[in-house]
Amino acid sequence: MFPMANLRSSLELKVDPSATVIFCDSFIAHNPNHNGETFTSLRTDVCVRNLQGEVLVRDRAFVTGETYESKTLGITGKYKAQATLMVIAQQVSADALVTQLRAGLVAMEELYVGVSTLPSNAGVWVRMLGEDGASLKQGLDLAWILVREFMVDALQLAALD
After folding, report:
1. GO molecular function of the protein, one example (predicted)?
2. Is 58 inside a domain boundary?
């Protein structure tokens, strides 16, 4: 995000129980003039609903550039790049996918990663913090590969039943 940027991002999904949705949102502050300026604020809102309109998952975040640049432990610390990867997949075992992602992503030592199930048995989410965009991209690429492998295997097994 460039200096003085004030960004609001909103995503609303309505999903069928048999659907698989994989999406990612990420950001990194960028100051091409290197003059200490930062973005004003970032507000994000993700809402996932079932076909009846009931909320399955809601994720909201708000951060000011000042807070982001403070490098406060528990907020951003040393990390400059942040990402969220959500896998909405009610037809597979979220716990098994969490296990696979945790095992595969543990090798990404330059990232701070958390993986957990989403409420309402909706799927899985991954949060990543990286020191730069390159390390974050590597982590997201690996997470994408792990999710795709898991989904292909799970759906092939389900087809055999």
Report:
1. nickel cation binding
2. yes
Q: Which domain holds residue 102?
A: 6-160
Looking at the structure of the chain, the number of domains it has is 1
Contact 44, 60 (CB under 8 A): yes
pLDDT digits (tens, 9 = 90+) for 76-99: 778 889 999 999 999 999 999 999
pTM for the whole structure: 0.89
What kind and span of H or E run contains 45?
strand 41-49
Q: What is the mean pLDDT of residues 111-138?
A: 95
User: Cα dihedral angle (66, 69, 71, 77), rounded to 10 degrees?
Assistant: 120
User: Does residue 73 fall inside a structural domain?
Assistant: yes
Please indicate, yes or no, if residue 1 is contained in any of the structural domains. Answer: no
Q: pLDDT for 5-44, tens place per residue?
A: 999 999 999 999 999 999 999 988 888 888 888 999 999 9
Distance, CA of 20 to CA of 103 (rounded, Å):
22
Phi, psi of 65 (to 5 degrees): -60, -35
